[in-house]
Amino acid sequence: MRCSRPPLRKKIIEMSLPSSGSRQARSRFRNAVSAVYDYSAAVAEETCTLLLPAQCLCCSASVSHSDVCTQCDIRLRSRIQEKQYSCNTCFEPALHPHSPQAPCLSCMLFPLGVVTLQSLWSYQHPVEDMIKSWKYGGNEHASRYFAKELSRFIEAQLKGEADLIVSIPSSPSATRGRGYFPLGDMCRVISRNLNCPYFPLALRFPRSHRSQSSLPIADRVRNMAATMTLGSLEIRGKNILLIDDVATTGASIHAASTLLTRAGAREIRAFTLARSPRFQANRLKACLSRQTDETIKTRRGRR
Ligand SMILES: [Zn+2]
Ligand SMILES: [Zn+2]
Predict the structure, then answer these.
(1) 279 C-alpha to ligand 2 centroid (Å)
(2) With 90 as the cut, is the pLDDT of residue 140 above it?
(3) Ligand 2 centre from 111 Cα, in Å?
(4) SS3 at position 22
(5) In angstroms, what CA-CA distances link 20 with 16, 29, 167, 252?
(6) Would residue 148 be called left, alpha or beta, if left means φ above 0 and alpha means ψ between -120 and 50 degrees?
């Protein structure tokens, strides 16, 4: 059963908000309508689950007592990390097939600033469709599935070494447009599963910026580093679990880890649901563009 609850929730709240009243009163009213809506939607969904057969998140085949059918489950279990010859930071193929623990070329030229970056899947069919349906269609079934799978994966990799969870922020205009923050919703569930506090406002975009997905690869690092800021949270000496949905160039992870490290974070381990199949190539492209920028600046400075 797929639903698009958040956009509908936003519409109902907007329609029922009184046009007058203090900001506080309007905020209380908004929270009350949201709570009533969530409760009614949960009851409706439970009823539908009892009456209608559930569908596989990937292929829409009928399933009972599971999120994905057996065939899709087998496909989804073949994860990136299980590839051989992985770089021990970004878990991509390393420089040389006979040196499995050596850093890959992109980690040598453009360090991510994290101890490890691990991703569950490659961002291609069927994972790409599932993530889009979750992010843009408010598919809560997918959200629960992702939270469950990522929690299990993190738990197996970390063995309780994190003090707090931080997520890559969303631009204010994107959150307003969707009416919700899908990554934040997923991180709240992961926080409960791992019994580790989550701080959704640890990193922020104080103003709207151009969406990363609309930018050429080379501009993503510049865009992220220029706009992301750190909230007022004490992170000195803390081990941080940094979570994002998709890593395309690692620009968001790099910008976040730079801010968190400057503020005194001890160790940062990053996890994403998926990463671009061209992750290494994208990073090298971004890295080359950054070096070209620096060369131009140095030349201008000499004149
Ligand atoms: Zn399936
Ligand atoms: Zn690497």
Answers:
(1) 10
(2) no
(3) 8
(4) coil
(5) 12, 12, 35, 40
(6) alpha
